[in-house]
Design brief:
four-stranded mixed β-sheet, 11 helices, 2 domains, alpha/beta, about 260 residues, 2-enoyl-CoA Hydratase, Chain A, domain 1, Lyase 2-enoyl-coa Hydratase, Chain  A, domain 2
Length: about 260
């Protein structure tokens, strides 16, 4: 597992790796250095069997304010944000979405622009009462990126996605919950602990089954019913061959908590 650096902090406890974006004076804006460190952390976590779930959060009062705009130089004629995305946030978001481990977001404050994209790429999202979610790209003349155009319409529909993307208006935590953008809203001081507790619960579960469930849910978005039914049958065959299935059935019969092999 890579060491923590100044802009991305890493803590592993009982199978839960907490990744903290750490540039609080800029509300954890995504500098090129931070994106590279974040990518390295995710790559290592994906391969590390001791990491069984992840929690993504931000230092200070913000989750992530988006790209570090101070690094943009639009007047020099050399900027190519498309290439920057392809080598930077695109692999980050792709790995979060395809990693066969739960990735949870503890949204402790503002999540704007690409910071919101990172939150949406997580499997589950828990928001502090003070959190604000902002599709902010239009405010500086850009289009949503880093996967937002994929994740947000699937959560709230194309019409509301267009409204938020065209206006750049902020969405409060309770409205975000009502729209389906977050799973739950909690008091500010509880959001990280709650997210870590759920991540720890998932880390104690049957790893292969949890991975198959994530893979199936992600794939089912793009498939017709007959394909989803066959996908479920195939994945059930794989799950039933895992020793955790026998342990789960035995625990049910013996009226005890299963001791899953992770």
């Amino acid at each position: 597992m890579p060491e923590s650096n100044d802009q991305v902090l890493v803590d592993l406890h009982d199978g839960v790796q907490t990744v903290t974006l750490n540039q609080p004076t800029k509300f954890n804006a995504l500098s090129a250095t931070m994106v590279k460190a974040f990518s390295d952390v995710l790559r290592a976590a994906e391969r590390d069997d001791s990491v069984r779930s992840l929690v993504i959060t931000g230092a200070g009062k913000g989750f992530c304010s988006g790209a570090d705009v101070t690094e943009f130089r639009p007047g020099d004629g050399q900027i190519n944000l498309g290439d920057s995305l392809r080598t930077g946030l695109t692999p980050v978001v792709t790995r979060m979405h395809t990693m066969e481990k739960p990735v949870l977001a503890a949204i402790n404050g503002v999540a704007a622009g690409a910071g919101l994209s990172v939150a949406l790429a997580c499997d589950l999202r828990f928001a502090a009462e003070s959190a604000r979610l902002v599709v902010a790209f239009v405010r500086i003349g850009l289009v949503p990126d880093a996967g937002l155009m994929y994740f947000l319409p699937r959560l709230i529909g194309p019409g509301k996605t267009l409204e938020l993307s065209w206006t750049g208006d902020p969405v409060g935590a309770l409205e975000a919950y009502e729209l389906g953008m977050v799973n739950r809203v909690l008091p500010d001081e509880l959001v990280l602990g709650h997210t870590q507790e759920l991540a720890a619960r998932l880390a104690q579960g049957p790893a292969k089954t949890i991975a198959l469930i994530k893979r199936a849910v992600n794939q089912a978005h793009e498939l017709p019913l007959d394909r989803v039914l066959e996908l479920e049958a195939n994945y059930q065959t794989i799950a039933a061959r895992d020793p955790n299935f026998a342990e789960g059935v035995a625990a049910f019969r013996e009226k005890r908590t299963p001791r899953f092999n992770r």
